Amino acid sequence: MRRMESSAGTTSVDLSIPVRADLVVLARLAAATLASRVGFGVEDIEDLRLAVEELCLSVVGSDDDGRLHLNYECEGDAITVTCRYEADRAPSGSRLGASDDLSLRILDALVDDHGHELRDHRPSAWLSKRRSDAAPLRRDAGAS
Q1: Side-chain-facing half-sphere of 125: CA atoms under 13 Å
Q2: Which domains does the chain have, with CATH numbers?
């Protein structure tokens, strides 16, 4: 994992992991750590963790070779995560290229924006989530 800090207040972190289901937890952990640093609340952090997992799984589909390269950009109250798949061959089961409705609905529910593309027959996808600053719950003056 590589972290770069820019003078404009943007933090960029790069993570490269082998495509293995048990290592996707590292991508989730990096997202949660950065979201916490930006001031995301517990629910927003959990949404981002789930979305990053969905992003990774949707890029590789059922393949278990190659590498996932993730880039996390933190700027202000937002995090953008880009995930690209690299291997000697294109993945056989990428769901984003096939426009998997369930995957898209999950990402729609969890993040503010997302997209995907094929570069040299390799899937690449991104998501963006802003911190939600919901007003704290107000307690009734008469409640104990």
Answers
A1: 27
A2: 2-130 (3.30.565.10)
Residue 141 CB-half CA count within 13 A: 0
Q: What is the dihedral of CA 50, 64, 71, 57, to 10 degrees?
A: -30
For residue 138, what is the enclosing H or E element?
none
Name the pTM for this structure: 0.80
Q: Say which range, 4-13, 16-25, 85-94, 132-141, has the weakest mean pLDDT.
A: 132-141
Distance CA 69, CA 12 (A): 13
Q: What is the chain's percent helix, strand, coil content, to nearest 5?
A: 35, 35, 35
Report helix, strand or coil for 84: strand
